Amino acid sequence: MLQLYFSPMACSLASRIALMEAGLDARYHQVHLATKTIADGDGDFRDISSKGAVPVLVLENGERLTESAAVLQYIADLRPERGLAPRPGDIDRYRLQEWLSFIGAEIHKAFLFPTFWYKDDGSLAKPRARITQTLSVPSAHLADREFLVGQRFTVADAHLAWALLLLRPAGVDIAQWPPLAGYLERMQARPVVREAIATEMALRRAIPANAA
């Protein structure tokens, strides 16, 4: 069985959504990122991945896969009939990779990561100055589209939905971008996305303060 190492409401939420949308069973191991410990045992998470970051997907043969862009595409390819990623060779497959890269680099690493992990105003000044321009890109793209790629939900949508969810607690109101606000509302209306978020929010509330 697949195993996913995750932290509640971290970027690994997109991998949970992908697994559920694909109809794949998996074991989920919660990680306390602050302490790098695994909630259902006494192990050091860095023994699972030296990067110390989620997601980590343990494949059925025991190999481990990291980085959201890789994990999400792997999950999608396990159930190609679900259409969670365009098939290899299709130009839309490269559009999917384009969006996964943009979300990971320009929203997650450039804004969300420093916002939640850095504390001083000097470190946060540049990310906050860039975020308006950054969000204008997916906003313009989604002005007349339901999904990021093609005509159906893909793992890129799982990734962007997660990122948009975290913008408000990071101090950004996406109501400034009506296409993004409408898009997030549509994503949250999907039963699987709604269930995944509810599961992780409940787990997040239960995390001890010193392990969050």
From TrEMBL:
Q: What sequence ranges are listed for the domain GST N-terminal?
A: 1-83
Instruction: Please indicate which superkingdom the organism of origin belongs to.
Output: Bacteria
Question: Which InterPro entries does the entry link to?
Answer: Glutathione-S-Trfase_C-like, Glutathione-S-Trfase_C_sf, Glutathione_S-Trfase, Glutathione_S-Trfase_N, GST_C, Thioredoxin-like_sf
* UniProt domain GST C-terminal: residue ranges: 89-209
Name listed for the protein in its UniProt record: Glutathione S-transferase
What organism does the record attribute this protein to? Answer: Bradyrhizobium guangzhouense
